[in-house]
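Session log. Operator J.P. requested a structure for one protein chain; no other inputs attached. Running the standard single-chain path with token output.
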Amino acid sequence: MTGAIVLLHGVASNRTRWSEFAATTALRESWALLRPDLRGNGAAVYRGRFGMPEWCTDIAALLDAEGHSKAIVAGHCLGANIALNFAARFQQRTQGLVLIEPMPPAALTGTMRRVRRLRLLLQFLIPIVRALNALGLHRWQLAPLDLEALDRETRAALAKGPEGEAQLEKYASPLLDLRTTATSAYLQSLLAVTEELPAPAGIAVPALALVSERSTFTDSAFVRDYLERLPDCEIVALPAKHWIPTEQPQAMRAAIEDWVGRRFPAAA
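Structure written below.
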């Protein structure tokens, strides 16, 4: 392998977000594809305090453990925000960024804008939930979440007609999120995704941004305003409702492969 690509999932998600991509991309032939469960998610259940600093430190530790001095860091949704924070904190270890539907707080709309307005309430609730967890009051079993299977099921429903939109709404359902994610982890992820992003001018690494043409979570003009202030960022718009990995997996894969091949030809 000539390099590493770290693939980060979003809120209430896990490493299966990237299973289909990892199994089908030609990049797997020359790049090590690292798909961690972010602390608090998937198999990495954790009910203590965490956020951007802890996730970024975890990524650096993962690179150390796998023997990589630097990596391309890719992320979807919250994962894209984490990737930007990692680049700001560990710029020498960031070879490049792939930002899939990043979520600058100023761009949040709909449900996520309401979540942002509730930040003070989240900051109040999270210590209470963590204290209850420390007393042993928490769910001992969480429902499994296989996003590769759910993605295939959703695409099949979308192909049949408008009823597929209802299937797509499952991805934004707090009830589903809480079935598969510990409450404290879910609340802390919501808090993290609504915090300010690093100043874009200071993130001087090559970046590819994939944005949805019909996002229900962000205002595309505000997203582009942030991305266009990154020193070196290519922006590609895809026809999706925020769930590019679900709705446009082939276009996503082609865009990433093309960008990596052009920007890092010696490692491709």
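Operator note: Residues 3-263 form a domain with the Rossmann fold fold (CATH 3.40.50.1820).
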